[in-house]
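Notebook entry, structure prediction.
Reason for the run: the old model in the group folder had no record of what sequence produced it. Starting over properly, with the input documented here first.
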Amino acid sequence: MEELPRAWREFLGGDFDSAGLDAILDRVAAERAAGTRVFPPEGRIFHALQLTPPDAVRAVLLGQDPYHDDGQAEGLAFSVPAGVKFPPSLRNIFKEYAADLDRPVPASGSLRGWAGNGVLLLNSVLSVRAHEAGSHRKFGWESFTDAVIGSLNRKRERIVFLLWGNFALAKRPLIDEARHTVLANVHPSPLSAHRGFFGSRPFSQAEQALGDWRWPGPAIPDELEFHLESEEI
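New structure, fully documented this time:
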């Protein structure tokens, strides 16, 4: 629980089951203690919430669960650490980003710059066993991330929720679309991206919906980089 930022603990308040979250984290810790490799690394499970406090959220990009191959997961949906080869879905996201906003394809697969400028990169499930996709989906993470989405829905105004694929679309009933914008589409994976993701212009649509905000570039803000290097969040 200490890894969950105080701002989010206070924001969620009674909207989530703290005992239930403790039980999830105990299961994750037990797997690590038994020698099972779990992603993302320790200290990064709540990385999305560490980089994007609740009062800074302008858009929510919802993923499924962390990447399960070596060196990929860093606790941010769709993001990989700098220097890691782009996974196929992220490569397709960058293609649409570049075409939509007339920007170059980012050189790095890390989306920390997005997270530091108001894009909550939240996976529905926050942990996974190495090389076993979906292996922690019965741990109860969905209840916690439901609480995050539900609290943002009730306590904030004018957020854009980008829901790509059936897993993300399952969160749609939690969102009041009279107060927020939902941009729903197929998943950007190679299996589905050509069925409506390419050409959908989600980034400029998010900008239009909010009016006073522009989709950030990939570089992490200097002040956040300094904060990350100088102290624990």
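Summary: The beta strands are 38-39, 59-63, 119-123, 128-129, 160-164, 181-185.
The old model has been moved to the deprecated folder.
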